[in-house]
């Protein structure tokens, strides 16, 4: 327990300043606003494991992307599945984002409840219950947030288009949709070309659906190691989507949006004129998976700085050359790529169960081992930021070495 813990819990309840309206009844009421602490905390007082944000690095990343995208005459539609935090979504919108993305309906419900919009739901829905939630959310956003902060969703199936159209007609609204194209992963999306053109015509014939454009989110090229090969693969993957986009226009079907891309290919995909906006997510935090793919000038993608860390405590030295920390798979999402200990490239993180990680000091890390005593705090860069964030309720934002408030991860666990 830290000083002021009861007061902090009271503020968590009191911070629910925007109660969920009827469409959100199925979503647990969650804190949406920053939660001030009774007094500033140093990192040595933060209970571990904890998810901390170095705010100065975060702000650099946000500003750098906003500036770079503007210089390339593109837009960003950041994916909130990375941070799951309306406070951070608001910051991205303030810096010029044209809207935000949410992977699931429940994520969109939470972001909308905090006043965030426009929102694009990037996964198709096909069942009547989910369609009803989408339409109810669209109605609420149009009424309470206004047309400029409305809702859009992707579609990839004719039957789902018909069901969405009927639901929108019953609700008396128009609903913006984008066609989700399969970029070659076989995960979601309709095939580019004739199939997508046919679906576009079905949407145009609907009285209540408004075709806005195409989504072609290709995650696989983003993690290709080596900038040149990543560029080749990404441009190759985009070609069918671009051809479909241009064909729609040539056949008189008005579309304004071709969206996709992400942190791993952000600069590469800006080279393609047809792409209108990028669904970047991890850039504001960075993680070891993305850093390992390499940049234009070297083996590390260092366009953006790590700003997200799991703060862990050294709790045991069971044998020579090893230190155990209190951050295992319940604190750091398990991935192929290892987390890294910030400031200690000579130390190797090893998984050691749900609650523990083991740091292998190695021969070259003798000096580091001497510095790290029991009770030492270490900052660990996650392997994959999105699922790691989903393990926590709050961020501890660090400014000048202190934490003065908590930032709720309001959409944590929103998988529906």
Order of helices and strands: HEEHEHEHEHEHEHEHEHEHEEEEEHEHEE
N-to-C span: 33 Å
Q: What is the residue-mean pLDDT, rounded to a whole number?
A: 91
Number of helices: 12
SSE-based structural type: alpha/beta
Shape: globular
Low-confidence stretches: 1-22
Task: Give me the count of strands.
Answer: 18
Biggest pleated-sheet summary: 10 strands, mixed
Strand content: 15-25%
Helix % is: 25-40%
Describe this protein's structure.
This protein has 416 residues and is α/β, with parallel strands linked by helices. Helix content is 31%, strand content 21%. The protein has 12 helices and 18 strands. α5 (128-144) crosses α6. The longest helix is centred in the middle third of the chain and has 24 residues, at 227-250. The chain is globular.
Short description:
Helix content is 31%, strand content 21%. It has 12 helices and 18 strands. Strands 1, 2, 11, 12, 13, 14, 15, 16, 17 and 18 form a 10-stranded mixed sheet that branches. An 8-stranded parallel sheet has the order 3-10-9-8-7-6-5-4.
Which structural traits does this protein have?
18 strands; 10-stranded mixed β-sheet
């Amino acid at each position: 327990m830290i000083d002021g813990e009861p007061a902090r819990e009271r503020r968590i309840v009191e911070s629910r300043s925007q109660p969920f309206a009827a469409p959100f009844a199925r979503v647990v009421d969650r804190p949406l606003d920053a939660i001030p602490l009774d007094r500033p905390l140093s990192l040595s007082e933060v209970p571990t494991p904890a998810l901390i944000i170095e705010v100065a690095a975060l702000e650099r990343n946000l500003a750098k992307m906003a500036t770079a995208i503007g210089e390339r005459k593109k837009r960003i539609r950041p994916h909130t599945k990375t941070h799951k935090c309306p406070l951070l979504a608001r910051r991205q919108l303030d810096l010029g984002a044209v809207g935000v993305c949410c992977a699931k309906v429940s994520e969109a419900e939470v972001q909308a409840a905090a006043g965030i919009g426009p929102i694009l739901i990037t996964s198709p829905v096909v069942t009547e219950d989910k369609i009803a939630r989408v339409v109810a959310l669209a109605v609420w956003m149009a009424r309470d947030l206004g047309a400029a902060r409305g809702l859009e969703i992707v579609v990839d199936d004719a039957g789902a288009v018909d069901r969405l159209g009927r639901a929108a007609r019953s609700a008396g609204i128009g609903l913006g949709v984008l066609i989700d194209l399969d970029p070659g992963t076989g995960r979601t999306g309709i095939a580019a070309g004739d199939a997508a053109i046919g679906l576009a015509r079905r949407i145009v014939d609907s009285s209540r659906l408004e075709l806005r454009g195409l989504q072609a989110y290709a995650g696989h090229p983003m993690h290709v190691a080596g900038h040149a090969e990543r560029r080749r693969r990404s441009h190759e993957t985009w070609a069918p989507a671009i051809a479909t986009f241009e064909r729609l226009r040539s056949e008189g079907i008005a579309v304004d949006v071709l969206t996709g891309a992400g942190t791993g290919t952000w600069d590469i995909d800006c080279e393609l004129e047809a792409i209108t906006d990028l669904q970047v997510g991890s850039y504001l935090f960075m993680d070891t998976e993305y850093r390992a793919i390499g940049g234009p000038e070297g083996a590390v993608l260092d366009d953006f700085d790590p700003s997200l860390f799991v703060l862990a405590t050294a709790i045991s030295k069971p044998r020579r050359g090893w230190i155990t920390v209190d951050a295992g798979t319940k604190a750091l999402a398990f991935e192929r790529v290892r987390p890294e200990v910030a400031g200690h490239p000579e130390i190797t993180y090893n998984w050691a169960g749900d609650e523990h990680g083991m740091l292998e000091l190695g021969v070259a890390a003798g000096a580091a081992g001497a510095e790290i005593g029991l009770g030492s705090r270490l900052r660990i860069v996650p392997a994959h930021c999105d699922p790691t964030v989903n393990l926590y309720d709050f961020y501890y934002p660090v400014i000048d070495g202190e934490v003065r408030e908590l930032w709720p991860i309001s959409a944590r666990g929103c998988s529906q």
